[in-house]
Structures are given as structure tokens and as C-alpha cells.
Design goal:
The complex is a heterodimer.
Chain A (H helix, E strand, L loop, with lengths): L9 E5 L4 H13 L2 E6 L7 E2 L2 E4 L2 H8 L3 E4 L6 H10 L4 E4 L6 H13 L3 E3 L5 E4 L3 E4 L8 E8 L2 H13 L4 E6 L10 H10 L5 E7 L4 H12 L4 E6 L23 H10 L3 E3 L5 H9 L1
Parallel strand pairs in A: 1-2, 1-5, 2-4, 5-6, 6-7, 10-11, 10-12, 12-13, 13-14
Antiparallel strand pairs in A: 3-4, 8-9, 8-11
Chain B lengths: L4 H10 L7 E4 L2 H11 L4 E5 L12 E4 L2 H11 L3 E2 L9 E2 L3 E5 L5 E10 L4 E7 L6 H7 L4 E5 L8 H11 L3 H20 L2 E11 L5 E3 L3 E4 L8 H4 L9 H8 L3 E4 L4 E5 L2 H13 L6 E4 L6 H13 L5 E8 L4 H14 L6 E7 L2 H11 L4 E3 L3 H12 L3
Parallel strand pairs in B: 14-16, 16-17, 17-18
Antiparallel strand pairs in B: 1-6, 2-3, 2-6, 4-5, 7-8, 7-10, 8-9, 10-11, 10-12, 13-15
The chains are: A alpha/beta, B alpha+beta.
Chain lengths: 289, 389
Amino acid sequence: MSILVNADTKVIVQGFTGKEGTFHAEQCLEYGTKIVGGVTPNKGGQEHLGKPVFNTVDEAVVSTQATVSMIFVPPAFVADAVMEAADAGIELAVIITEGAPVRDMMYAKQYATKKGMMTIGPNCPGVITADECKIGIMPGAVFKKGRVGLISKSGTLTYEGANQVVNEGYGITTAVGIGGDPIIGLSYKQLLAMFEADDETEAIVMIGEIGGDLEIQAASFIKEHITKPVVAFIAGQTAPAGKRMGHAGAIISGSAGTAAEKMEALEAAGVKVVVSPAEIGAAVREVLG
Amino acid sequence: MNVHEYQAKQIFAKYGVTTPRGIIATTVDKAVDNAKELGGSVWVVKAQIHAGGRGLGGGVKLAKSLDEVREFADEILGMTLVTHQTGPEGKLVQKVYIEEGADIKDELYLGIVLDRALEMPVIMASTEGGMAIEDVAHDTPEKIVKVAVDPSIGFQGFHGRELVFGLGLEKSEQGRFIKLAANLYKLYLENDAEMIEINPLIKTGAGDFIALDGKMGFDDSALGRHPEIEAMRDISEEDADEMEASEYGLSYVSLDGEIGCMVNGAGLAMGTMDTINYMGGTPANFLDVGGSANAQTVAKGFEIILKNPKVKAIFVNIFGGIVRCDRIANGILEATKLVDVHVPVIVRLDGTNAAEAKKILDSANIANVISATDLADGAAKAVAAAKGE
């Protein structure tokens, strides 16, 4: 087992024929992901990377039975693409695009939830079940099959964390980059619950950042519901207050959302908290033995 | 993107939010002319910078004569205003807003921000206006009324009633307050605002609500569809190095330490800073090279980092996903040709095309470049190099 996606997951790509969509769809295919087609308006009927192109998500779903969509459309069209996927019965939309307006995501997320579609992102590296299915832009070679689940706000820290876990010899079940925008899809809580229920996952690595309070909520959820060992790192301990550090979410003002606050809450919930991302691998070794 | 108070008030006017009459000035003479044009006998001279706490820092003065307008405008224009939001270096004041005086009976607070947990805008109101809302939230949280507005139904009558009864407003005042809150919600949504704050919102003797101050921030990702707001950008309010960096797709924030950092991804960049700190060093900056880094952007990054005279070593930490390590390696070579890289450069490259990158750097054999095997190794070497070890 694993969570969210596996070797049988059928995936379509929205924004399939664009530069980014093409490059990453190719990488995903190489990794073994079952990409069954893509959507680009007015290119329906063509073939791209050996897969059929459709004009609408609805056509793509009807003819391929895809359940997951990987979204690469430009920022201004993200909300439209997400809602189209939800309307067509897609079960999970993985939104890679960076820079989608917050207001758009507010509406899109609400509609997706109403239609029962899960979302990941936007502005995220995507989701990968090691050696089975990569839906996103992460370097596939880093992710080797194993028994640790990983959840991260940051893209590159996802790679850093996974690399260390793999180098320690444990490997990854599924890794999810949830993104750091103000409005995101699946978050720590839901994913922690999925990893808790997953037989293959024996420990969970959770990587957070300053700003917002998702990690604090996750801490109380872990205390109540998670029995598997959790290792956590919070980036931004040395970030000065009030300065924005790249991610829309990575800003702290006053005492809200500081790394110290989050680390304390996680520690109180029994989580093994590390002060540097360089210690993630060793901490996993410690909790798994 | 943030705008000045006088710009926020221009936007308020379009949405029926009443403000005192005022005119902007960049010279002392113009400030006095403005006061004459506005008429009356009391004026407020207000420094225009993108930071709160201006009054406490001496940037807002009440003038009771035209001579005082002249005196205060002269004092404020060109001053470096330090507030709790500017940092110790403060901000140079280049504009003053001259405003007519107002009849203040009560001071309230009204603001709108996105509630990330609820994923909708929340209207916040309080009878405790005129002070920092963070302090009110901390000391007397029961005095803040919060009403979340689901954008799928928009601002309804009940939202308004929750606000006015929560604040304990008189029946005669309720209608005017509800209309104001509805207008502000409309402004927030239509303009992709990130945050709107009126502090204080005053109640006059006649029972009118007037926005005495105005603060607004907008979603950078949505500026493309609001050219009139983008035109309000004041680049003098933004850090020159940060601006230059952003033109090249780099996200840069300067800090106080000695080790320059060049990293891909905001999370890993912060994690790198944390690791340097943990190992006894101090980061000189945050720098995220972004997803489309190439030789030119990396060279630019070196140039910006090296402008800071405190930098004693540079740590390049790249975990390539979209970013290809070979491009970063070429960027480092390029940089050593274009810029005088006079400090040790510790390089850790992992992920996409890391092997090719290593070959490029090894064969170039640059004196100052030290390679590292992983994050811990790189940070340790950078800390040692900065200490001259």
C-alpha cells in the first residue's frame, strides 16, 4: 500500500502540450506514472508524447477513466482548470503552478470540496509514491521505496528529507508536497491520518515552515490520533520577523507562526523535532531503530 | 504589494468609505498650499511610508495654524522615521499628506484579512481603535468581533448584525456601520486585497464613521488584473537589492550575518540558514534562486551577495528538482569570470544532473571553490571558512 496514488493510478495532464507540462509529463512517464492523456483546448484529437490530447477534461475522463489530474496551466487559468477537473469527476487534482491568485483558489477549493475532489497545492512539487507513480516535478531518482511517509510545505526540503531517509536505508512510501500558499488543498492533518491508516508506512516525516498555524493544528491532531512515530523540522528559525521569505506563507509577524512556537507544540505532542534539516535522516533512524 | 495611506484613501473613496479630505505633498510649500486649499483651522500632517506606528515615531502631527503646517512639514519631509515596523534603520519620508482635522467622538477598528483555516475573508472590528490591534488581541481578545464571510453567498444582512451587536453600537449607528462593512468587503474582494485595515475608524459627534487612517496590501499574484493598483507601486519603499534580485527571478532578503547563501526553494533556503546558525555561523542573507535558475541568474546572485561587505564565505546549496545542477555549476563559473569572488565558495549540488555539475566544477578547478557532500558538510565548511579556518 501507500497513500493517494499508486502504480495503477490513471493520470491526465491539464496544460499537457505547454513547455512545462511537456517536460514534466515526460519525466513522470519515465518514472512509470500511468499518464493516459492530456487536455489542451483546440488540440483535441492530436497525440502528444504518445498519448491522446483532449479539448476538455470531461472528454478525457470519459475516454480514459483517469482519476487524477496534474495541473500545469498558467496562473490566471488555474482556478478554471481545477473547477473543470472537479466538474468532470476527477478525484484528485495536483496543482503544480506557482502564482495563482488567492481569491481564485478560494473559489476553486470551495467548488472542489463541494464536488468531493481532493486537491494538492498549488505551488507545490506534487505527490510521489516511490517506484510506482510520480505526479509532479520532484527528481524521481531520489525517491526509493521504503517505509516512511513524508509531508512537506517546501519543495526542495521534500527532496532533502527524502534523500536522507533513503540514504539511511529506510526509503519512502509516499511523499506529498502540500505547498506554502495561503490556501492549499490537502494539509498535514488529512495526510497524517492517511499515513496512520497505511500499513506500509511505519514513520512519518513532517516538514513545516514559519507562518500560519497549520503545524500547530497538526501537533494537536498528532497528540490525539497518531500512534506512529513522527519526525519534524520547521524551517525559518533564523528568519527575522516581518520579512517575507519567498513563500507567501513564510512570513511571521509578532508571535504568531514562529518556528519556536511550532516546535514547542510538536514536541509537546511527542514528535521528534530536529533543529536542522541535516538531522532528519538520523532522527528517523532513532525513532525506527 | 502595499500602498500608502493617501492611496488607500483614494481607493476608499471609490467604494463610498468616507475619509477626511486631504492632499499629498512632496515639498513644504505644497504642504502649506494644500492646507490653505482645504481650509479650516486644524490640519494633520502625516508622513507617508509603508509602515505602521508613524504617530509614535513623530511622523504624524496636529497643526493648529498654517505656520505649524509649515513647521511640521519641514520637520517630517526628509526625516528618517523609525517605527516598530520599519526596523532600526527606519524609512526616509518623501511625501506628506495634509488632511483636514476631524471631530473625534470614538475610535474604533475595522479590518479584513483572509482566515487561512476557514479559507474565507474575515471582517474584524473592535471598539478599541487607535491602538495596535495585536495588543488588543493579546490583552482583551473578547473586544474583537470576527465575522467570516463565505464568498459564495457574499456579505449578507446577518453578517452586519453580528458586527454591530457584537460591538454594541446604538440603533441609530447600525445602518451606517453595516453599509461601511459591506463596502469594505466589496473593495477587498474586487481588488484582490490581502489585507485592509482602518485604525482608527472614528465616530464623529454627528454619528458618522470616517476612516482616519487606511492600510491596504494586495495579492502580488493578482496585480496583473488591477493595473490601476499596480500603478500605485512606490519602488522607493522597497529594498533596492531585493528589487534588483526580483528582476532576475531571485528572491533575496538581506540579513545581518557573514555567510552568503544561495539556495533553491524558500524552504531549503530557510533550512540552510537554520543549519548555519545551528553550527555556530550567521547567515548574511536569504536567497532563493527559483525554479528557472540559469548561469546569468546565478552570476547575478553572486553579485548581489558580494555587495554586502560583511560576507566572508558563500554557501551554494542546491537540491535540483526543476533546477538543473549543471546550469548552477555553469553559473558559478560564469560568476567567477564576471564578478570578483574574493571569498571561499562552498558548493553542495544534489539532485537533477548533479553528476554533470560535479564534472564541470572539477574540471574548471577554481581556487576559491570548495565542494561539499551534503547539507551538514556544506554548512560546517561554510562556518569554518567564514571564521578563517
